[in-house]
């Protein structure tokens, strides 16, 4: 039984979190305090905390301790291709978009590669943060071919680019290829988001195509990892 004590500690703390004895965003007692409370070694407590982190109950933050994560995360569909404006209408939360960068650029090497663009081909760069319930938690970095989207304004970017592209330009946005990765926070993330010590982001990379299979947009949607879980529906084929 002694060898499995860390499991019983894990279950006890997890139950306290689920029953909201300790609430989201609060910090658990220190390893020393927990070892006294459970009459065990710090190593055993550390194993229990690692298990809690692996199962999404806590996030260990250097200099802050073990922070309890929000188990009621906002859900973002992996397979869907929706604008933030459309998504915000389903969240039931107060949202706001801030445009930090907007304009035409000659694409740097990375964007050339992602968009399969030529070095002298104009590309719109739009960098926006998304504020949900008072916190800036998403950074969207969008790149559009100018040849497909000849005109864009800051006001359009603050509202909905997709609504403009489909409604005003008459283009049909058809499908996207997506890649989801975890990456360390960048200086841009730190400048524009409320990170509260989190050092990694969940990044959804989108390659978006028009109805005629033309790639016209590359997007990096960078999400603070404690706030979101990405959901999908899958059916087994026969």
TrEMBL record:
**Protein's UniProt name:** Trehalose operon repressor
Pfam families annotated for this entry? Answer: GntR, UTRA
Q: Does the keyword Transport apply?
A: no
| Listed PANTHER family | HTH-TYPE TRANSCRIPTIONAL REGULATOR TRER, MANNOSYL-D-GLYCERATE TRANSPORT/METABOLISM SYSTEM REPRESSOR MNGR-RELATED
Q: Which InterPro entries match?
A: Bact_HTH_transcr_reg (IPR050679), Chorismate_lyase_/UTRA_dom_sf (IPR028978), TreR (IPR012770), Tscrpt_reg_HTH_GntR (IPR000524), UTRA (IPR011663), WH-like_DNA-bd_sf (IPR036388), WH_DNA-bd_sf (IPR036390)
Q: Identify the SUPFAM superfamilies for this entry.
A: Chorismate lyase-like, Winged helix' DNA-binding domain
Q: Residue ranges of the HTH gntR-type domain?
A: 3-71
Top-rank taxon of the source lineage equals Bacteria
Entry annotated with the keyword Thylakoid = no
Organism of origin: Bacillus atrophaeus (strain 1942)
């Amino acid at each position: 039984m002694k060898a499995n004590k860390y499991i019983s500690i894990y279950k006890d703390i997890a139950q306290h979190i689920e029953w909201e004895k300790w609430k989201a965003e609060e910090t658990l007692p220190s390893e020393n305090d927990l070892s006294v409370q459970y009459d065990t070694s710090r190593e055993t407590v550390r194993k229990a905390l690692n298990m809690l982190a692996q199962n999404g109950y806590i996030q260990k933050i250097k200099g802050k301790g073990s922070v309890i994560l929000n188990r009621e995360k906002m859900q973002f569909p992996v397979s869907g291709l929706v604008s933030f404006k459309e998504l915000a209408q389903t969240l039931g939360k107060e949202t706001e978009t801030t445009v930090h960068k907007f304009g035409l650029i000659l694409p740097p090497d990375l964007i050339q590669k992602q968009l399969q663009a030529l070095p002298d081909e104009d590309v719109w760069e739009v960098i926006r943060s998304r504020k949900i319930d008072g916190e800036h938690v998403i950074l969207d970095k969008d790149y559009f071919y100018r040849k497909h989207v000849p005109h864009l304004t800051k006001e359009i970017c603050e509202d909905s680019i997709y609504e403009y592209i489909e409604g005003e330009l008459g283009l049909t946005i058809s499908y996207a290829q997506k890649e989801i990765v975890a990456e360390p926070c960048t200086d841009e993330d730190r400048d524009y988001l409320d990170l509260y010590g989190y050092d990694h982001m969940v990044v959804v990379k989108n390659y978006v195509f028009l109805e005629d299979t033309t790639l016209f947009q590359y997007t990096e949607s960078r999400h603070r990892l404690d706030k979101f879980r990405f959901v999908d529906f899958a059916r087994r084929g026969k």
